[in-house]
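Sample intake sheet
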Amino acid sequence: MNVWRSAAELARAGTSGAIATVARVRGSTPVPSGTKMLVGAAGRLIGTVGGGCVEADVIAAALEAQARCRPALVTHHLNADLAGDLGLSCGGTVDIFVEPLVADDAYVRVLEAAAGAESGLVRTGVAWDAGPVKSFEPLPPQALTGVPAMLTRDGRFVVERLTRPPRVFVFGAGHVGAAIARAAAAAGFRVVVIDDRAEYADPARFAETIAVMAAEVDAALTRYPLTAADAVVIATRGHRNDALILERIATSPAGYVGLLGSRRKKAVVTKGLTAAGVAAAALKRVRVPVGLAIGAVTPEEIAVSVVAELIVWRRGS
């Protein structure tokens, strides 16, 4: 769920709320900088900033920020003993910036811009003596190196570098493909499901956050040109369909290409595509069987193994 969009909707409607953002971390902490939580009048709505006493204090600060219409900077020191008692594997310091949502048109426009942007820089003032101080600058991802969020050296601003999560294209909307799509979406990926069968490529079968397209592979790639930041998982209903799709995907710029199936299937498909002229180097990078080797059997277990591997790829581990 898009925290920025939900926050914009609350602010535009004049509904009480606040955004908590992890602005700086030192040492071992529960969550990285840039992590966000949306708080409403009754408490947490979306996201988390670590749980335990950290979250309880941040929610209290958010409710106070709502009441005062002024932001606050909450600092938590988590020593190892306290972290262990709370079940948190941390022992560092975290600074969390809490800003109230205000029905100010310029402020809401920044939230909406951040919600819809592919990438950009959000700059928020820590002090709002004359009203909210927030701006958005669209920038390409390559210009946004560094930590996702930080306090400026003078402590006057929180600067956030926004980049969209990777896209995962799932070809095949059967039981396994649908389970992979749902698990990937739950893990924060932007998911597109593609199937040439309209009854399977039915948006009603998926959450609103998952895009669904009934199309052949050529039409799908025209609609969604692949980049190195994209991942593709092929999980269609048979060898022939898999081979047709893999022939197009293997030579694409996609950063991750996985094929559902056994090693025998890999040998059969690879032999056929090599005979069709697909370069060996392009086929070598295809992950078959797709997913981590955890002994997965059911569609849901397979989905967990695939998304776990996608996370490894995303984090560069």
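Comment: The chain has ten helices and 14 strands. Confidence is low (pLDDT under 50) at residues 80-89.
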